[in-house]
Amino acid sequence: MAQGPGTTVRDRIEQSGTAPRSQHDKFSEGVAAYDAGEYRKAFDIWLPLAQQDDLAAMRNVALLLRQGLGVERDPARALYFYERSGRAGLVASQVNSAFMYLDGDGIPQDYRKASFWFHAAAMAGVPVARYNLGVMYERGLGVAEDPARALAWYTLAARAGHAQALDRLAVLVPHLPGPPPPSAADAALAVTAPAPPPAELDRLDNSTDP
User: Fold this and answer.
1) How far apart are CA 160 and CA 170, in angstroms?
2) Per residue in 87-113, is it b (16+ CB within 10 Å) or e — as a string?
């Protein structure tokens, strides 16, 4: 189901409340068209709202452009709307932007920018963003390799029930450094545990749900 009504950048800055009723009605008309499979009609309704800085309309326009639904596929233009609404605080767009950079979805792959958007969404509490940020810190993708930060983000994702984060913790925790081994005079040195297998990114993007 589509989000709505949208919130504008001006609303975010001025805290001026909800969108006007006419804008609400137009947004809902776009939702009805999308749900009916009339993607071009939905695009034509949402685009003027997006150009007026309606955050949800921007994200929905980006979805249609990214998927080529009702319009010619245009990943670069989709990313423009995702990032614009993401910078204004729409968390779903932050996640979508991160996945576009992560996968190189019609744009050059850029792990650094992916990590930036995953971090924004992770700070907002999105479990998949927290998990993927953990993977990026563990593997040094777009950020400096940092096992401690990776573990912290995995832990936060796991607390929200993210299955892959729970699995990752089960793998990593047995390999955490323990107390120093006994001296040779007391006992033989402990055998070092083998390195854990590499982490895998969670590529489940919710971009198909406007």
Assistant:
1) 16
2) ebebbbbbbbbbbbbbeebbeeeebeb
Angstrom distance (rounded) from CA 42 to CA 28? 10
Query: What is the pTM for the complete model shown?
Result: 0.78
Q: Where do the H-state alpha helices sit in the chain? A: 9-14, 21-35, 39-51, 55-67, 75-87, 91-103, 111-123, 127-139, 147-159, 163-172
How many angstroms from the chain centroid is the CA of residue 83?
Answer: 11
Per-residue pLDDT reduced to its tens digit, 133-143: 999 999 999 99
Give residue-wise pLDDT tens across range 12-59: 433 334 456 688 899 999 999 999 999 999 999 999 999 999 999 999
Residue 92 one-letter amino acid? A
- Side-chain half-sphere of 133: how many Cα atoms within 13 Å? 28
Residues facing 8 on adjacent strands:
54
